[in-house]
Amino acid sequence: MSQATQVNSVQLESVPIEIDYMALDDIIENKFNNDKENLIMILQEIQRNYNFLPHPTLTYLSTKLDVPYSQIYGVATFYSTFSLEPRGRNIVSICLGTACHVRGGERVRNRVETSLGISDGETTEDQRFTLETVRCIGCCSLGPVIKINEDMHGHISSDQVGKILDQYE
């Protein structure tokens, strides 16, 4: 069986990840025409598929695009939008910029951490949530703000955290 038709299973932090090399070929060849100038967009597409950038996909991408692994790794670690670690199905971003901080952002963060049993940068054991703090989401007039996936929740108090988190599977 050629590498392009294999589906490998990789074990990362007790979470098995299926790497579908045919799907990677589709992304690299069909969507982005094997063009190394599209590296960031290719990485974004891979992350959309896996919710992070599994190491084997970066190695494969390096070979397919004839780009040194160190360059791909450098791009993947430079931009904070990329993650090399498995993340939850729902990404909870808590704004701790000045406007959100003075309006109670820390209290909201503390409640989220308590509710989920995780700290900044961690993922719940059931892979449901990953928590991250950010310096500004760009909704200062709505502070404090948390963003879950692409949903913004503004003017929230720590008392509302549980109800908001319950909306996400």
Write a concise synopsis of the structure shown.
This protein is of the alpha+beta class. The chain has helices at residues 21-31, 39-50, 55-65, 69-78, 98-102, 105-116, 161-165, and strands at 7-12, 15-20, 90-95, 129-134, 146-148, 151-153. The chain folds into two domains: 3-78, no CATH class; 90-165, Glutaredoxin, CATH 3.40.30.
Please specify the SSE layout and strand pairing:
Elements: E1 7-12, E2 15-20, H1 21-31, H2 39-50, H3 55-65, H4 69-78, E3 90-95, H5 98-102, H6 105-116, E4 129-134, E5 146-148, E6 151-153, H7 161-165
Parallel strand pairs: 3-4
Antiparallel strand pairs: 1-2, 3-5, 5-6
Helix pairs in contact: 1-3
Order of helices and strands: EEHHHHEHHEEEH
Q: What is the number of strand segments?
A: 6
> Main sheet, how many strands, which sense, barrel?
4 strands, mixed
Which percent bin holds the helix content?
25-40%
Task: Give the overall average pLDDT.
Answer: 90
Distance between the termini: 37 Å
What is the general shape? Answer: elongated
Rg of Cα set: 18 Å
Structure description:
It is a single chain. The chain is built from seven helices and six strands, in the order ββααααβααβββα. It is α+β, with helices and mostly antiparallel strands and about 170 residues long. Helix 1 packs across helix 3 (about 55-65). It folds into two domains: about 5-80, no CATH class; about 90-165, Glutaredoxin. Helices cover about 40% and strands about 20% of the residues. The strands form two sheets. It has a four-stranded mixed β-sheet with strand order 4-3-5-6, covered by helices on one side. Residues about 1-15 have low confidence and may be disordered. It starts with 6 loop residues before the first strand and ends with a helix. The chain is elongated and about 50 Å long.
